[in-house]
Amino acid sequence: MDDSRLPILQMRLDGIAQAMQDTLFRCAVSPVVREGNDAAAALMAADGELLALSDAIPLLLGALQGSVEAILAHYPATAMRPGELYVMNDPYSGGTHLPDITVVMPVFAGPTLIGLAATILHHQDVGGIRAGSVPPDAVEIFQEGLRLPPMRLGQGGAVDPAIRRLIEANSRAPATVLGDIGAQIAAANRAAEALGTLASERGTDGFLAATAACRDRAEAQIRAVIDALPPGPFFGLDGLDPTPGLPEIDVRARLTCADGHFDVDFTGTTPQVAAPINCVRSGPLAAVFYALLSLAGPALLRNGGVLRAIRLTLPEGCIINARPPAAVNARMGVVRATTSAVLQAVAQAAPDRMPAANSGMSYVLAFSGRNGDGTPFLVTEIIAGGAGGGPHDDGAPGISTDVGNAMNMPAEALEGMIPVRLVRAQIRQGSGGAGRFRGGDGICRVYEALADAVAVSLRGERFRRVPEGLRGGSAPAHARARIVRADGKQEALSSRSAVTLDKGDRLIVESCGGAGYGAAEGA
User: Helix-strand-coil percent breakdown of the chain, rounded to 5?
Assistant: First the structure.
């Protein structure tokens, strides 16, 4: 086999994964996907190992291999048939949180299974105690919505009627959820056609051998990157804002680089808590995967061969490896803290290649209520922060960073779906950390309710605990949120709040910037 051709094959596989993702964005019903791009796609080998990734949210990509492996454990590849569909969203079987539903379709060339088309998409509502299925007051997963273990979704490329009825009985927005699942099926169909064409060009056996060689090449590439790093150990520490009733939330990372392994030990991380801020193994795996990709550069073939070099030590029952029935819907804050801790350790190993800390946790807002005619509305909004300053440039403002990669909601899309006006959307000037290269500024967004009883579920972070600068750079400004009532009264909000807006009330959210890199001139 001509090894020089492997990068071309990987590019074609990546292109198929990207086309799947583009299909999700075009065909999705919910605005959080269509506008916010909260979805991801991948191709997997028949054994569940990653073949190719779309350019999407790393946190979701980090969950796909574990989700597919869980499906294969219940439905062996040897028993799969063309046209079958599989589904799961269980965090404790490889997922992330309940709104993120994975749909998988096996792809065949004649009688041979040549791969699996997998997508993961944030669904608008899967039940639970609050609209949007991200309740900030949940203390166990049973309060968060419909939990789907690995199961057959349908056959013949269509959703089974029994599954359809199950979703309709548990979602506040069943048509939206089923529409988005339809987008996932469409993406899988597109992948099946393209992957079949690629396999026919090489012959089935040649295709399988070449994709296996791509993964082996990626493994060799990443082990060479790791072997070029000092062995360490290197350390990182980050965490969440202090919250009344909860212990201090710390994520501790210890990185060693030896024998081609990227070994991250999270011993000392805070135990899981009775709040929805826990996460499961897919979170730290995504964080470490992202950090390793950041080190490797664009020449790396991005597939499951990279994951072979990762070794995680995750204490059982800690906040990043929670046991059921821990609540996990607001896990993004601790995943971002985990990523920050890992990147701090990597910055010690490669100080001239890594930037200062990013803003970390994005805001997630869920607006819900009823229109004047009684019809329900529900929209999720994701708000970014700023990137950290780097060794050569200032950080970018108003951008979703590291394991997040979502887009902001345009005012036209938001206002067309809910009785809320986006009064202001701007860069939060001066919120990035100072330094030789400044951290990027965060964002300020102001929403005005145009009707009474608009419920808002707010999840954020960095209200009290912000990242330090790197190499003498400064920390960014804290995030903050408040309500200005129609009568002028102001109410400060915590980083995890559930509030109601009436007509004329305004919600103001300001996100954290990135940290600065290097001491500012004259400092």
Answer: 30, 25, 45
ω before 149 within 30° of 0 (cis)? no
How many Å apart are CA 210 and CA 281, to the nearest integer? 30
Q: How far apart are CA 251 and CA 272, in angstroms?
A: 11
**Rounded distance, CA 419 to CA 412, Å?**
12
Q: Identify whether the C-beta of residue 509 lies closer than 8 Å to the C-beta of residue 365.
A: yes
For the chain, the first-to-last Cα distance in angstroms comes to 58
Give the count of beta carbons closer than 10 Å to the beta carbon of residue 178. 17
Distances, alpha carbon 192 to alpha carbons 6, 9, 147, 363, 393, in Å: 21, 16, 28, 36, 42
Burial of 420 from C-beta contacts in 10 A (0-12 / 13-18 / 19+): buried
**Closest by CA position to 338, among listed 391, 424, 389, 264:** 264
Encoded amino acid at 281, one letter: R
| pTM for the full predicted model | 0.90
What is the structure's pLDDT at 255? 98
Return averaged pLDDT per consecutive 10 residues of the chain, 523 residues in all. Answer: 82 96 95 86 96 81 87 96 97 95 97 96 93 88 97 96 97 95 97 95 95 97 96 94 89 96 98 95 93 88 95 97 96 90 93 87 84 86 90 91 75 91 95 95 96 90 89 94 96 89 97 92 66
The Cα–Cα gap between 288 and 486 comes to 46
Enclosing H/E stretch for 295: helix 282-296
Place of tokens 């509502």: 125
**Which residue in 361, 390, 355 sits closest to 513, CA to CA?**
361
- According to DSSP, the residues that pair with 500 across neighbouring strands are 455
Whether cis (ω within 30° of 0) applies to the bond prior to 233 is yes
Beta bridge partners of 447: 422, 507
Spell out the alpha helix ranges (H) of 386-510: 411-415
Both tokens of 351, joined, read: 């100080």
E strand or H helix at 519: none
Q: How many other CB atoms sit within 10 Å of the CB of residue 125?
A: 26
